[in-house]
Amino acid sequence: MHTSSFTLCTIFGRGELAGCKSPFGFLASTSDDPYGVRTHVIAKSPLHAYRFIGTRIKSLKNTVPWEGMLTRALNEKGLAFTYSYVPCHEEKGEPRDRLEFSEGLITRCSSVAEAANYLGSGVPEGCTGNWMLLDASGELAVVEASCSSSEVLMQGDLVRTNSWQLLSTPEKTNVAKTGPDPILTASSDSRLRRATSLLGLESTVDEVMNLVRDHEGMSYDEPEYGLSICNHGKSMGTVSAEIVVPRQNALYYNFGRPCGACDRLASWGRFHKFVLSEVRDGILTSVEGRILGTTAIASADLT
Ligand SMILES: [Zn+2]
């Protein structure tokens, strides 16, 4: 298994309960992928389950095993999640569909407690990592989940990249069979350090946007996967950025680099606000970054 096979990402979260640095709850993320992979925004109303809006992985070659997986989402009950991948190579159990698993989380759970329980018995291979959760009550948690076990941390502010902080697993489960990938490890460590130092007292969406536009660690000659949060690596980097604010019933989405650079993609350089109660069901943005069916979307551009 190789890092180029997976979605990576930097994720931030803040809750709204007592003890939080600022009473503005959000989840924020960069979606980092090989450049043959995109994300797009969808909304869906499953039968007998919760309606949601989220971003789904879309491979332009249509051959990747995590095709269609939801990686950020918000449902009608105000539960939101975001996700960052951590490699894990323990023996897997019964194969499970990643799309179905990730959709099940947002369509069947209404709170952090229910979501932690859903993730608690392990996740399908390819869905291992950090599942960050925020609900309508303002509770924030991260579930570190391997294929067979999990650890939950509830805290007012959280950041994660592509490593675990709590989960104790046999060493063989947390490294590739060929050993840790040095490119992924260097990038993950660098982004985690920077994200931890950056997360402050953000109290508006505009301030949160600055977290995912950060370039510290970026160099003139970028490695295959870079060291900065807004990531401009040669082979993989940031293909979109997302901010979910449950109290606003909203997902803010930026196609391409959140800084606006168009070195790989026709980046928007701004976030579009999608309000769950106002959007139609279906695919809301294309893999080229077009907003689809704009007349049905009563959402405000943020500049
Ligand atoms: Zn950038």
- What do the pLDDT scores average to? 88
Low-pLDDT parts are 170-178, 295-303
Shape: globular
Helices, by number, come to 4
Order of strands in the sheet with most strands: 9-8-7-6-5-4-3-14
Strand content: 25-35%
The SSE order reads EEEEEEHHEEEEHHEEEE
Question: Radius of gyration in whole Å, from Cα?
Answer: 17 Å
CATH architectural group: 4-Layer Sandwich
What name is given to the CATH topology? Penicillin V Acylase, Chain A
Structural account:
The protein has 303 residues and is an alpha+beta fold. The protein has a single domain (3-296), classed as 4-Layer Sandwich (Penicillin V Acylase, Chain A), CATH 3.60.60.10. Helices cover 15% and strands 28% of the residues. It has four helices and 14 strands. It has helices at 98-108, 112-119, 182-198, 205-212, and strands at 10-14, 26-34, 37-44, 52-59, 70-75, 80-85, 129-134, 140-145, 150-154, 157-160, 236-245, 250-255, 272-275, 282-283. The strands form two sheets. An eight-stranded antiparallel beta sheet has the order 9-8-7-6-5-4-3-14, covered by helices on one side. It has a six-stranded antiparallel beta sheet with strand order 10-1-2-11-12-13, covered by helices on one side. Zinc ion binds next to loops.
Features:
single chain; 303 residues; alpha+beta; Penicillin V Acylase, Chain A; six-stranded antiparallel beta sheet; 4 helices; disordered C terminus; binds zinc ion
